[in-house]
Structures
1.
Amino acid sequence: MTGLIVQDKTVVVPGEVIAEGIDYLPSYGSYREQDKIMASQLGLLNIDGKVLKIIPLAGRYLPRRNDVIIAKVVDILMTGWRLEINSPYTAVLNLKDASFDYIARGADLSKYFNLEDYMVTKIVNVTSQNIIDVSCKGPGLRGLRGGRVIRVSSCKVPRIIGKKGSMVSMIKRATGCQITVGQNGFVWINGEPDKEILVVEVINKVQREAHIQGLTERIQKFLEEKTGNKIEIIEEKDEYESSEQSEYSQEN
Amino acid sequence: MNYTKRFDGRKFDELRPIEAKAGVIKKADGSAYFRIGKTTAYAAVYGPRELYPKFMQDPKQGLLRCNYNMMPFSGAGERVRPGPSRRSKEISMITERALRPVLDLKDFPNAVVDVFIELTETDAGSRCAGICAASIALADAGIIMKDMVVAYSVGKVGDQVVVDLDGDEEHFDHNSSVDIPLAFIPSTGEITLLQMDGRISPADLRKCLAMAKEQAPAVLQVLQKALKDKYTME
């Protein structure tokens, strides 16, 4: 028997045979064992022509270059800050990448970023041993004041952002909150206290139902019920687009 | 001594009823519940995460660290002394070695995947139940693994070769029965755990292994279903 054994967009588990024969190619999350292609990760099967890829449903964040992430300061070093990024590894923000301002040698670094502060940063370099350098210089990169930060699974980030940012922009318009989604799964929310709670509720719903079809419509309905206003889904090109696509095109 | 009929009425090549569920511990990165007969195991996976003490770190790949623990009330009546023991250390180690061959932790140098296995009720076959639970929990945590690992015991009770001994069978005829816990990689048929209690002839051992291999697909199906059910509820 040759050909596909599992349908597109179904949940596959490690060791499950996805296809037999030589008509298909294994990609991220799958491997070939003689004439069989098997899954090596829990996820949704995505068939792109001949290529079989698995979009993971769980797993820790692995840092990649150019990802925009939200980080928390956990330590202040001699020449920079150590940051927690929801990954097995910590990142380092170096003095020269921290600010456009001149920071004198020996200055009190806690004046710029103190312990427990959150910031939006961009990963500039990742080594093979997962030593991570980040930068705070660039459009949209800054320290975060006020609001709240919640943690979600980094696998659900593309769902929270939606196609071309449609999901997050819909939540923003419905609640009037400022929202920044980091690729690492930290989400910063700033707005009216009761609206912030609503955003947290919506994001948790997105997380729970991320793998079920028709998500955007369900969230639209949910938001309309909660706020009592009509909400439209608009696809917009914004800062998220590039980072969202990198999520899908990884390792290709 | 003759053993003609099993105490619980099972066929000689029949497993006890199996039940499994994924994602039972919300705070963990991955978790599972696995029950076979009267043996219940819970497994929770945390990580990959930073590994300390630092000398344990491996710059080439991540480390798997398992911890097997029986609850004080889990035994056949007498209290199990809490805390690590010679037995639980051994089982933690063999669990690690049973699971390690399927895992791919190359992406996580210097990090560790922690697996905690807790047994709330035990009636023989607890290390195998622990391995099955850990196998589901690791997959649930999104860790890259080439296959799941299935585990159960085979052995010889009296003069009869049987699959999946329960507590009564293990103690049959003054503990003279043979108990062989096994773990398999189902796709390749490789054995990742094989221990033995008692004495057995080479011919009977081969018979046991042949009998055991036939059960692998049934157990695997339960493990796979547990993971899929987590995402098909609604």
2.
Amino acid sequence: MFDLGPLWLTLLLAASTTLALLAVGTPLAWWLAHTRSAAKPIVETFTALPIVLPPTVIGFYLLLLFSPSSPIGGFWLSMTGSTLTFSFSGLLIASMFYSLPFMVQPLQNAFEAVGRRPLEAAATLRASPLDAFFTVAAPMAGRGFLTASVLTFAHTIGEFGVVLMVGGNIPGETKVISIAIYEHVETLQYANAHILSAGLLIFSFVVLFTVYALNRRFPINVG
Amino acid sequence: MRLLRIFSWVLAVGVAGWTSPAVAAEALVAAASNFSQALENLQREFETNSGHKLKISLGSTGKLYAQIVNGAPFDVFLSADQERAEKLEQAGKAAPGSRFTYAVGRLVLWHPGGKSGRAVLEAGGLRNLAIAHPDLAPYGTASVETLERLGMKERLTDKLVIGENIGQTFAFVASGNAEAGFVAASQLAQREEPEEAIWAVPPEMHSPILQDAVLLARGQSNPAAAAFFRFLQSPEARTIIRASGYALD
């Protein structure tokens, strides 16, 4: 039977990255949308860097950062007994860096579109800030959440360079679909490369099409 | 429109300036990553003496082979095995009869900051062990054969981390991410490394790493490629290759 392991691993990585970035990216985007702090442009710049930087730059620095001789890599090794390089956890962290702008930027835009007024209205009705966020702001920014999640998921599926540099090509751990395809192409196993590539192409098309079609059918109004 | 015309003029003049009167020729050499250091030494010697220029493209033998099969514009191929060089010859992609063994690779187990040797593998304490991809890099194939020979392959399978080529494998170990790794002796030849950190794998533990070169079809009409190919077989080139960590008689 043809090995579909890389496909499942990729989907798991993309889903985990999306969930983790929803947790981290939402407060960050919220802060960026509402802050008047002088630090805002700096944070925005850092957030956007992964769009500009080649994956090799991210991969190179992660390789140094994950190394047991660095404080972070050393700490992780002493806590877990394994390195961040060559592990699923490491790929998850790498993907979170790599896909960060794809989560934060759409969310920030959505939160900015919602604005402050609905929240102020909620506050006058004695909603706590957290309550107001979940019952008022979040639903109003629904389309932003959808866009951010789809982009993050899709971008993580398309990840290649960073994984090639820090992954170590371990089946079930770091051998994601892009790496498996690369390997098939390099060993001239074009039939296998076709199966995975065409599968990925169809899958990506269906996911994106579903999102766009649903979005058109059931538009979520913002602000 | 005018701007476009000016732009294309600038471009045309620029391109002409780059490419025109080439006194010496230039050859594009595709080489297996393990040969990187040796090739740099050879290149220095060759370029000063011949006046020709070399451009070098490094990668795993398997990757470069696939690129050549698909029409990559290389003039010379320095494979890390015999098989792929031979296949190119049979497929008519290389000059017939040009194939020869330019180096014999030596596999070593590198365990920086510790003692190397088969005992390191047998003790089972390694966090991970880097090898090159066995389907792409002949050094990777030899590494797997060695592990099989030692009866350690099953035990170490889940500790293996795989570099796309021997250069990446080396980097995994050098950066400290992998605790130990099977690399090429040539990669350590110019590095100050305590002797105990390196175990020269006995040659009988794996099939010999005979590295063959072929003059590719494209390179036949390139004077730089032909000259480099001749130089590679000269006694002085062989001395450089030997000094760069290869066995060669």
3.
Amino acid sequence: MTTQIELYQQVILEHNKRPKNFGKLEAGNRSAEGFNPLCGDHLWVYLHVTDDGMVREAAFEGTSCAICKASASMMTVAVKGVSIEAVRRLFSEFQSLLKGELDPEHAPNHLGKLKIFSGIWQYPARVKCAALAWHALNGALSNQLTVSTE
Amino acid sequence: MRRDFPVLNQLARGKPLIYMDNAATTLKPTVVVEAVAEHYRMGAANVHRGVHFLSEEATRKFDAARETVRAFLNAKEAAEVIFTSGTTGAINLVAHSFGGMLKAGDEIIISEMEHHSNIVPWQLLCQRQGTILRVAPINDAGELLLPELERLMNARTRLVALVAVSNALGTINPIEQVIAMAHSRDIPVLLDCAQAVAHKPLDVQALGVDFLAFSAHKLFGPTGVGVLYGRRAALDLMPPFLSGGDMIRSVSFAKTTYAELPAKFEAGTPHIAGVIGLGAAINYINGVGLHHIAAAEAELLQYGTECLRQIKGLTLVGTAAHKTSILGFTLNDIHPHDIGTLLDQEGIAIRAGHHCTQPLMQRFGLPATARASLAFYNTKAEIDALVVAIEKTQRLFA
């Protein structure tokens, strides 16, 4: 049996209490709404994407559980100043991480601090909490205004 | 009593399991598990058609279970007990068969505290038939506002469909008064007893109720089976719902005639093992005594309420004067899913979410609540452990 990982680590609790980039982005030019009707997690992701394909600013707001909020907060930090192409790669890597298909200690990746969410696959009911903001981000980049995870 | 539930003797996340999600489903005593297993091990034949030994045995047990349900509800005759897939299946049966006889402009009354299973079938009926759904409000304690309900009753009202006990709040509704109110205007009443059935005796003749629905799995029985009780006078007027085998008298391409009750409403091979398991569950409850169960749960509810009230930052959601042992709550600004996961790490199973009562959550302005729902096999020591785990959760989020 695998050892249970500590889900509510200090970093997650800290981002939940004092989320980064929380609020509307006045200068934003892309946004999407993310909603999980099953648990009520509901947030909006705002981006300012430059003409040359860089995410200059990222922010979010909404109401959600700690896992969802911390994930959204850390996501905005991770994608700021990053090209759309790199953001999409990060999105894909993060998806694999949540599914337990990417071992961040051995496989090459760009996840950095986002590695803290490795092991969440042991809590299948909570994977969607961590994924919601990323799906909204992906929606914003694809001009899909609302995304829903269940 | 806990001996009867071997499932309680296991570890969850390395801690002794504390099961407080009984409103979602109750645990199954050994006698129920054995009755279901016995059917598949030694029987497994179909009912009501074979002329061989195994089929006759299965039919005998199946019919005995129907009689057990009849006696449990004190129905006048066993033919008024229709086996369904559960409460949802039972309500859908009424919404289609009884509902199909309604006309545009006819009205159906439900309450604000209904489970989605007693909302959506009526909304779909309204779309099909042009009927109108009226919703009786509740107060902040989670109690039905009877005068408001009465005000909704008029000459166009064709049915009152009400939950007997709220799954999210624990509120015990004054079903006797509602039935009297409705019947004085010749309005039939359907009771959703999914949550009530394991907690209080239900006597359909004393109540005079027209339809009553419940699920076996909330009564220490198997999933996938439930009951619609209907008064014969009401059921006889209604056309079949699902159709096919078992529900016919004779079939020809010129004309098909339908079977008598209860077969008319039981198309297809039923969940035979489930029905036998339901019979075993009721026999088990009769042995323990529903009054004993109610008394034990009342004591747990009182103790649990006192304990949770002492936790600063905890707000009980559902504080009706008459309640079953359901403790819905919010905790500071901690999301219920975080509470649920953290209690789970202590081996404590609770439910976190909207409890399939989204309009009720909207009424209270909450996205979700945490809910500890107790059964007679829970203990005060388990409630103490719940309090410790809740306080630990608070410290983590402080």
